[in-house]
Amino acid sequence: MEAVAKLNNVPSSPRKMRLVANLIRGKSVTRALGLLKFEANAGAPKLEKLLLSALSNWQAANADARIEDANLFIKEVKVDEGKMLKRLRPAPQGRGHRIRKRSNHVTLVIDSKPVVESVESSESNKAK
User: What's the pLDDT score for residue 114?
Assistant: First the structure.
């Protein structure tokens, strides 16, 4: 069972947020939380809070299951471009330079890995 959490209109550029998102893509939830806790990039606390939100969404959907036993991992992290605010900054000789203040939308999906029974299947192959 997967859970989704979305974060819209984060006031940082998508390029900077993708640097942090690429760190945690495909990792287990506990490892990703540890990485985000000590990451120096400004997008890390926002992604950490989003990951905790996705975790609570998963727990709400699976009230009878334990998080420790579920073997959760980050299935998908998507960072899209959001609304761009356009501002003018004074420039020499009465001109104005355009400043683009970028924002982004982050979508995070977590899922549980199925437990692979590879030991039993390899033993059955040996018996044949």
Answer: 78
CA distance 48 to 53: 9
Cross-strand pairs, 77? 108
Residue type present at position 18: R
pLDDT category of residue 1 using cuts at 50, 70 and 90: confident
pLDDT of residue 116: 67
Q: Find, among 98, 102, 82, the residue nearest to 90 by Cα.
A: 98
Looking at the DSSP bridge assignments, the partners of residue 83 are none
**Which runs of consecutive H residues, i.e. helices, occur in 10-108?**
14-24, 29-37, 44-61, 67-70
Dihedral sign (CA 6, 11, 14, 19): negative
Residue 66 CA from chain centroid, whole number: 21
Residue 32, CA atoms < 13 Å, CB-side half-sphere: 31
Identify the three-state secondary structure at position 60.
helix
Strand partners, 87: 99
